[in-house]
Every structure is written in structure tokens, then in C-alpha cells.
Amino acid sequence: MKYPTSIHDHVRIHMILFWLGVAIVVVGRIFSEPLHPHWLMWIGLAVFLSSFGYRLLFVHCPHCHDLWVGMATLPEYCPKCGKKIQ
Fold it and tell me: I need a surface site. Which of 39, 41, 55, 63 has the fewest CB within 10 A?
């Protein structure tokens, strides 16, 4: 089993969790009744929010550890220290 070692692997995992959470919420919404959310919606919300927790823990500069929470894509160079991201 290959463990995620690069920042790109971590971003990929974050995006998978993000879109999986969105998909589960949508499926839960399809099965829910008005004013009564389906239990799948809560699971989807948990997966969706866990994607942001994962990003906070693992998506940062490997050199200076500056967090990149608000960035949609990975920068080529760290905005804080200026080193190249690999």
C-alpha cells in the first residue's frame, strides 16, 4: 500500500473527500422528506467537513509549514517562503 507522500496526494485526497461528501448529501436529499433530513445527509455533511479538517492538517508548505486553506489550487512557489513546491 502506497501512503500519500506528496502535497499533491494530499490535495487529491482532500478533493475526493470533498466531492464524496457533496454526493452523499445530494443522495440523502433525494431520499429525505420535507423538514426531515435523511440520515445520509448527516453522514455526507460529516465527510464534507472532514475534507476541510484533512486540508488543515496536511495541505501546507513542506518547507515553512504555512497553511494554504484559502487557495483553490496549489501554488508553484510558496507565497510565504518562496521555495518551489514539488
Answer: 39
Helices 7-31 and 39-58 meet at what angle, rounded to 10? 170
- Render pLDDT for 15-51 as a digit per residue (tens, 0 to 9): 999 999 999 999 998 888 887 888 899 999 999 999 9
* HEC letters along 27-45: HHHHHCECCECCHHHHHHH
> What is the 8-class DSSP label of residue 83?
P
Sign for the CA dihedral angle at 7, 69, 57, 16 comes to: negative
35: left (phi over 0), alpha (psi -120 to 50) or beta: left
pTM of the entire structure?
A: 0.79
Which tens digit of pLDDT belongs to each residue from 24-33?
999 998 888 8
